[in-house]
Structure formats: C-alpha cells, structure tokens
UniProtKB/TrEMBL annotation:
The keyword Flavoprotein applies. This is 2,4-dichlorophenol 6-monooxygenase. Residues 6-370 form the FAD-binding domain. Keywords: FAD, Flavoprotein, Monooxygenase, Oxidoreductase. PANTHER family: FAD-BINDING DOMAIN-CONTAINING PROTEIN-RELATED, TRK SYSTEM POTASSIUM UPTAKE PROTEIN. It comes from Cereibacter changlensis JA139. GO terms for molecular function: FAD binding; oxidoreductase activity, acting on paired donors, with incorporation or reduction of molecular oxygen, NAD(P)H as one donor, and incorporation of one atom of oxygen.
Length: 585
C-alpha cells in the first residue's frame, strides 16, 4: 500500500513540470509535483520567451500572461544584437533580433496575439508553480525521486523525503519525468537517446553592475564579444547577457572541455567580466558562478508505458536560439490535455501514443538547431581573421585590416556582413518557434496535402489550417462590443473547439450531438456577420482555408485535428468518426 495516491505524479518543478501541473489542475486532474530542492530555480537560466510559449500562458489565463509581461523585459529592449571587441571597445556589427527588425515585427504581430519577451526563469518558474498550486496541485519540496516501477494499472514511485530521511511511496496512474538534463526518470524508463553529452565546456558568471553607459543606447539581451579564445568550447562566442536592464548580467565564456574544469573563483570571475566589458577597473557584485557543458542529445522515444518524459529530460542542448524552457513548456501543453481526457474517460489510452509521435521529432529538431547555431558563428571569426590558432597580435592586425580602403578590405567587410546576417537563424528564427506541425493518430488529414513552405521554414512562420498545424491567429471582433478576440482565444482551455461560418450551422448541431454522445465538452463558434464573432478584416476568410460552410476541429493545444473545406453530406457521422479516431474511442 503506497503512502500517497494521486492521478498524476510529476517529478520536477522546472518550466516543464510546473506547466504540466498548472495545466492538469486547470483541467481538474488531481496531480502532485515534487522537487528535490526546497525551492525553484535559484539562477536566471532561460530567458527568451517566444510567442508560442506566451500562447500557453495565455491559455492558462490572461492574468498569467499579464504577470509574465509585468516582470519581463519588453521585446523592444531585446533587439540590437551587438558583436563587439568588448562592451567598451569597438563595435564590429549588429543585427536586429527577436522580432525587432520591422519586417520580422510585422510577422510577429500577424502570427500571434502574444508578444515575445525576455523573462528570467527566476520569474517564470514561480509564476507557473504558483498557478499550479493555486489551482489544486499538491507540491512537495525537498522530495527526491529515487525509482519507479510500473504495472498494468499504474506506477509506484519511491521518493526520499529529505527533511526526515525517510522513503515514501506514491502510487499514480501516470508518471511525468520533468526532472531536467540529468533525468533519472528517463534513464529508469529506458528511453533511447542519440547524440553526445558534454561536447563543449562553458561557465556562467552572474553579477550586478550598472552597465547602462555601454548598452542603453543599443538595447539588447545579448552582447557578443569577439576576443581571442571566445570561440573555444562554450556557445561559440563570449557573451554578456542581460538579466535585468541594465544592472544584472550573466557572462557566458567557454573553456576547452578536453582540459581541466576551471575553478571559477571570485578573482577569476571578476577578471573575465573586466575583460569582456573592457573596463579594467570595473567593480562587480558577484552573485554566482558555475560551469556547465554543452550537450547535443535527444531522446528518440519520449515515453514508456505510463511514464512520459519532457523538457530537458528529453532534449539537451545549448541555449542558442533560446529554445530550452520554451520547448519544455510546449511539451507540457501537448501532453496535459491528453492525460486529462484519458483520466476523465473521454479518450482511450492510445491517444497518449501521439505524445511521442508529435514531440520526439521536435526534440531532435531543436537540439540539432541549437547546436548548428553554435557552428554558424565560425564564419564571423573566419571573416574577422580570428580563427582558432591565430595569435592575439595577428588577430589585432586582421581586425585592423577591415578598416582600410582596399579591395581586400572591402571583401572582408562584405564577408563580415554576410556572416553576421546569417545569424538570423539563431536570433530571429521565427519559423523554428512557430511552425511545428504534428503527424500522429491524434490528427486526421484524410489525404489533404501538406502545404509546402513558401519561405524558409526556420525563419518565417507560415500559417495553415492543414490538420496537425497550429491554428492560425487572426483578430476577430465581438459583435456585441467590437472587442478584439484572437481565434486562439476561442479555442484551448482543455477542450476541443469547432469553428465554422455562415451556412455551417449543420456542423453546430452535429458537434452538439457528438459531444453529448461522447461525453465531451466541445466549444462551437460560428464566425460571420451578426454572429458573436465577426471577421471584419477578412483575415479569417484569407487564412482559414475553408469555405464558410466548412469547419475546423481544433484540439485543446490549438493544433488542428481535422478540416472540412465545405459542408459534408453527413456532418454528424463525419465528426463522430473523426473524434472517435483522434480520441481512440
Ligand atoms: P529543469 O532543469 O528546469 O527542471 C528540472 C526539475 O527537476 C528541477 O525542479 C529539479 O530540482 C528537479 N529534479 C531533478 N532531479 C530530481 C529528482 N531526482 N527528484 C526530484 N526532483 C528532481 N537555457 C537557456 O535557454 N538559456 C540559458 O541561459 C540557460 N541557462 C541555464 C543555466 C543553468 C544553470 C541551467 C541548469 C539551465 C540553463 N538553461 C538555459 C536551460 C533551461 O533552464 C532548461 O532548458 C529548462 O529549465 C528546462 O526545463 P525543465 O523543466 O525540463 O528542467
């Protein structure tokens, strides 16, 4: 007999675990989350918060979304991605990043009701965790996962209560391993991994110092420092990273993973800070310093029976592209509604298979992308004549060479510009953030052809209602008061939604009948003149890819489950068939 019994046990209160807990509690599922420490992240860690993640927070509630904005550095402060000799030294180039180029900003505004922002994990985690606990999650801190065993009806997990030193057993129907990059749950579940851990060495130096005079005129979250040794180990370049504008900072500096691990003493940390900022007299208030490794490692399978892993437990990669916490939160958005529907008896267990089918390819994609971004800093060093092995004296000469009026110098300047512009694949890769399309048994395409990407899929978001894609965002207007409402706001909140237009009323009746038949909460919206939501701008007509009498069936995670371009001869039978297929009924 276990000490505690709960529907879902979650190991880890990081972005993945806390989001899962918050979503499950919002959906009315009893869950418990444990963390081996007594509190949440004690260093800022991940910051970049992309629009897709903000859509998850918005789905949790406007108050959750608003609180994130309240504590975040606004998108306008993120954008002047600077490459320099040091913060006080010469600037070598820059590019507008994170949706701050006017063309990119337009794409951001058109893609989502939310805004990208920069929110340190020390703010994000408490927000998610608080939301979970407020809504019913049982949280147990200082509780360390030790092992689990699963059988046909559930999982028995043994944890160590670190306050008493006693072991406790927790019986749950499902176990979620959100226990980070050293995941024991993934290891014990026997998940197969590909790639390598520890491909580079890096150190984080967190400190306070007012650097306004170096940065306020070129606001950015990232200042890249090109100095001898900056391309060794680490993330490709020396980095001065804004934590809070402009008085809290994180320096990321690499070391050779094949050599001994450096001891980051206060003197050493101060020396690195002075060197990268370019101020030999700079005084810093050192907050913490630690070393970490660059990983290139992902799970080929993310679940085993009743055990599901997510976040860094299944994708381990450097912070390039800012994908770590974002992808972890998005994993949770994919899994939580499925667990809820299975536990409520609204879906069969096979629905859960779609988690692996949908998220394992994403794990591989983002690990590969983040590591590729490190490699893509090489051409900047090459263009500057700063490749590894070149002496500091020669480097200075090569840097100097670009300032001359010769054809060689002009060619060098062109090469530098090209290499910096190419970094948009790391710093402005909106497509990587927004274009996730799923293929699984929880999507019914009925042979509808996947639309090809018209622009580079890593750089540009391309809206489509092709089943498996995320529902496009369009601002609709409320008929009663004219207020803007995103199409995404009509969906989500743990339920399926059917969207149709004038002439699609038969879909509404069909949806109501099928919802009653299957015991589902299914929201239905008719979009059109004198209906509750009106497409005054015509954007919905342009992007929905269905006729007014067609319909979209949207999953609780905003992804399209099924699309009918027009009215069918038997709408109720069609909808019943599709929902039964998706929900394994
Ligand atoms: P996360 O690691 O956040 O959470 C794991 C949770 O599991 C923690 O609550 C932990 O205590 C708990 N846990 C682990 N083992 C346990 C056990 N046996 N029993 C109980 N609980 C257990 N990313 C980025 O994009 N930019 C950055 O600058 C950084 N910097 C950074 C610094 C440091 C020091 C770390 C550790 C990580 C980063 N990251 C980062 C990575 C980013 O923080 C990461 O991608 C997300 O936190 C992943 O979220 P998860 O919820 O998956 O794991």
């Amino acid at each position: 007999m276990a000490d505690i019994s709960i529907d879902v046990l979650i190991i880890g209160t990081g972005p993945a675990g806390s989001t899962t807990a918050a979503l499950l509690s919002s959906y009315g599922i009893a869950n418990m989350v444990v963390n081996r420490y007594r509190w949440l992240a004690n260093t800022p860690r991940a910051h970049i918060t992309n629009q897709r993640t903000m859509e998850v927070l918005r789905d949790l509630g406007r108050e959750v979304e608003d609180e994130a904005y309240m504590f975040a550095a606004h998108q306008d402060l993120m954008g002047e991605n600077v490459f320099c000799e040091s913060l006080a030294g010469e600037e070598i180039g820059r590019m507008k990043a994170w949706g701050n180029h006017p063309l990119s900003r337009a794409e951001h505004l058109m893609s989502s009701p939310t805004r990208m922002n920069d929110l340190p994990q020390t703010y994000m985690e408490p927000l998610l965790f608080k939301t979970a606990c407020q809504r019913g999650t049982q949280a147990r801190m200082s509780t360390e996962y030790l092992r689990h065993e699963q059988d046909a009806t559930g999982v028995t997990t043994t944890c160590l209560d670190r306050l008493t030193g006693k072991e406790i057993t927790i019986r749950s129907k499902y176990l979620v391993g959100a226990d980070g990059a050293k995941s024991l749950v993934a290891e014990h579940a026997g998940l197969p991994f590909e790639g390598r851990m520890g491909v580079g060495g890096s150190m984080n130096i967190l400190f306070r110092a007012d650097l306004s005079k170096y940065v306020a005129h070129r606001p950015s979250v990232l200042y890249w420092v090109m100095q001898p040794g900056a391309d060794v180990g680490g993330i490709g370049m020396g980095l001065v990273r804004m934590v809070r504008p402009w008085n809290e900072w994180l320096i990321v500096w690499g070391y050779d993973i094949n050599g001994p691990e450096p001891e980051v003493t206060p003197e050493f940390a101060t020396g690195v800070a002075r060197q990268l900022i370019g101020d030999p007299d700079l005084e810093i208030e050192l907050l913490s310093a630690n070393v970490w490794t660059v990983n290139n490692y992902y799970a080929n399978r993310t679940a085993e029976g009743r055990v599901f892993c997510m976040g860094d437990a299944i994708h381990r990669h450097p912070p390039s592209n800012g994908l770590g916490s974002n992808t972890s939160i998005q994993d949770a958005f994919n899994l939580a509604w499925k667990l809820a529907m299975v536990l409520k008896g609204q879906a069969g267990a096979r629905l859960l298979d779609s988690y692996d089918a949908e998220r394992a390819p994403i794990a591989k994609q983002i690990v590969t992308r983040a590591n590729q971004s490190i490699a893509e800093t090489g051409p900047i060093f090459a263009a500057l004549g700063m490749a590894e092995g070149v002496s500091p004296e020669q480097m200075q000469k090569n840097l100097q060479a670009r300032t001359e009026g010769t054809p060689e110098a002009e060619a060098q300047r062109a090469a530098i510009r090209k290499a910096i512009a190419f970094k948009k694949y790391e710093f402005d890769a909106h497509g990587v953030e927004m274009n996730q399309r799923y293929r699984s048994n929880a999507v019914v395409t009925q042979g509808q052809i996947e639309p090809a990407f018209q622009l580079d899929p890593d750089l540009h978001a391309q809206p489509t209602t092709w089943p498996g894609a995320r529902l496009p965002h369009v601002w609709l207007y409320r008929h009663d008061n004219g207020a803007e409402v995103s199409t995404l706001d009509l969906c989500g909140h743990g339920r399926f939604t059917l969207l149709t237009g004038l002439g699609g009323e038969a879909w509404v009746q069909a949806a109501q009948a099928v919802a009653a038949e299957l015991g589902l909460d299914l929201a239905v919206h008719v979009i059109g003149p004198r209906r509750p939501h009106v497409d005054h701008s015509g954007e919905w007509a342009r992007l929905s890819e269905i006729g007014d009498d067609g319909c979209l069936l949207v999953r609780p995670d905003h992804h399209v489950a099924w699309r009918a371009t027009g009215m069918s001869a038997a709408p109720e039978a069609d909808l019943s068939r599709v929902l039964r297929a998706v929900l394994d009924r």
